[in-house]
Design brief:
heterodimer, A: 221 residues, mainly alpha, Rhopdopsin 7-helix transmembrane proteins, B: 90 residues, Arc Repressor Mutant, subunit A, two-stranded antiparallel sheet
Chain lengths: 221, 90
Amino acid sequence: MIRCPHCDPTWMFAELVFSAVVIVLCMLIFFRTKEMYGLTRHKGINYFRTTFLFFALAFFFRFAFHLFSISGIVFDFSFPRQIIGPLPLLVTGYFSTIAIFYLLLSLVWKRVNSEQFLAVAHVAAFLLASVVFVFRSAHFLALIQVLLIIFVLILAYLRSRHSRSFSGLFVIYVLLFVGWLANIMILSPRFRIPFEVMAVSYAVSVAVLGVIFYKVYRWTG
Amino acid sequence: MKKRDRLEVIYDILKLIKDNHNSIRPTPLLRYSNLSSQSFAEYIRELKDKGIVKEITDRKGRRFLTLTDNGFRYLDRYRMIIGFIEDFNL
């Protein structure tokens, strides 16, 4: 069944719960690895944990997009949609793209100049988010991120194919990104996804982040 | 012989300090750690900056290296840290 996501209370409630759970899981991963990073100053750990901080921010602003959309219904005032409407798309686009770059860097930091990589990554993420903001196209954001994600997955595959953790980590990253891409699509005003499909993508995202958190908890508990 | 990575070298240095009643002079520590004097100095400076080891001086003015609480915590968590890094291919 296809519903208008911003008018349906069930959808909004699901969004609220889903966003809260995802943000909490991402922040738990970030804070659980704080001591480990403090002791070692290991760059890989730093980039890994920062990935989840940026994912949490991306999900926060993604939910903000929905709040802005219903502000006229819930509150007495409504934000000017021409300005406020695409703004969360800009911020979500920036934070989610930079999160993918950080995850990529956590895999390749020994082989690249991290400072240069991050400088380029921030500029690229900002440019991408700006283009998305101007054209208001979540599809464009999703398209570019798909290419980035494919690159990350190829690297994850090459890095881990001989290790014991290969199958688990690779599958986790694939599912994480599939879930994320479905989450981006809902940001597009013209895009309608059946509630049931979105519910499945939410469940997958939460389950994957739950598995990542469990793996982190096991090593930091 | 496999080259030790950074975390392993730090673990070895901290273990040497701990196994010497948590107090060892820099010269024997350098000898046991199998590092060049330049690398050793860099590691010790880094560990002091991070608050993992500290330098103490006895009444005769001799310098000793000793583990801080963070140093003991590093030793306790080392296996977990390595497991985490390997698990996520970091």
